[in-house]
Amino acid sequence: MPDRRTSLDIVVCVRRSPAKREPVKDIGVKVVATNRQAARDYFLSDPHEAGLALQGSEIKSVRAGQVSLKEAYVRIEGRQAWLIDAHIAPYQPAAGMNHEPRRPRRLLLHRRELLRLEQATRQKGLTLVPTRLYLRRGRAKLEFAIGRGKRKYDKRQALAEREARRSMQRALGRGGR
User: Fold this and answer.
1) What is the CA radius of gyration of the chain?
2) Core-most of 36, 118, 131, 171, by most CB within 10 Å?
3) Cα separations (Å) of 146 from 53, 130, 132, 137?
4) Is the Cβ–Cβ distance between 133 and 142 less than 8 Å?
5) SS3 of the chain: helix, strand, coil, percent, to 5
6) Residue 163: exposed, middle, or buried by beta-carbon count in 10 A (0-12, 13-18, 19+)?
7) Distances from the Cα of 152 to the Cαs of 82, 124, 147, 159, in angstroms?
8) Between β-strands 80-84 and 73-77, what pairing exists: parallel, antiparallel or unpaired?
9) Which SS3 state, helix, strand or coil, does residue 92 take?
C-alpha cells in the first residue's frame, strides 16, 4: 500500500546523534577549587550539584580563586543543607565589609533532592563530601558526593594498585620502542 499522508497527518523528524560522540564540555565553567583529598579518603558515589548562597565579598573571592575545600563537609539540618568549614578568603578591597572565612554557607537544593540525601546520610558511615567548587554562567556551584570513609588498609590497597598500573605502563612504554 503506498504511503499516503493527508493534510491532518503530522510527520515528526528526529535527528539522532552519532553513536560514538565526544562528551560535551561545559562551556563557561571555571573550576575554582577541587578537593583532592576526598578521593583519597572516601569511596565516592552519586555526585550532586548545588548552588551556593554567598555574600558579595564571598563571590568576589570565589571568582579570584581564593577557596579551599580541604576540611569541608556538607551537613543537612532540618530542611536545609549547609557547607561547613569551607575556607573562602576575605576579599581585600572589601576591607570593613568582609565576611567570616569559615562561616556555614547554605546550599540551594530542591526539596526532593534534600530528602533523598538526608535518607542516604542516615546510613552509618556515609557522609556528604564536597569534591569541587566551580562557576557556571557566573553562579557558584558545589559538586559533592556521597562518601564512605576508607580505612587504612583500603588506602594501602589503592596505592598498591596505582603503583602496579604505573609500572605496567612503564614496561609497555619501553617495550614498544
Assistant:
1) 23
2) 131
3) 21, 9, 13, 26
4) yes
5) 30, 30, 35
6) exposed
7) 28, 18, 16, 11
8) antiparallel
9) helix
Q: Locate the domains of the chain by residue range.
A: 29-167
**Of 13, 31, 2, which is closest to residue 140 (Cα–Cα)?**
31
Residue 3, exposed/middle/buried by CB under 10 A (0-12, 13-18, 19+)? Answer: exposed
- Report the residue count for the chain: 177
Residue 49, pLDDT score = 93
Task: Show the CA angle centred on residue 93, arms to residues 29 and 137, nearest 5°.
Answer: 15
- Residue given cell 557556571 in the structure block: 136
Looking at every residue in the chain, the average pLDDT score rounds to: 82
Grid cell of 73 as nine digits: 563537609
pLDDT digits (tens, 9 = 90+) for 83-135: 999 999 998 887 778 888 899 999 999 999 999 998 888 888 888 999 999 99
DSSP state letter for 17: P
**Domain 29-167 maps to which CATH number in 3.40.50.720, 2.70.50.60, 1.10.260.40, 2.40.280.10?**
2.40.280.10
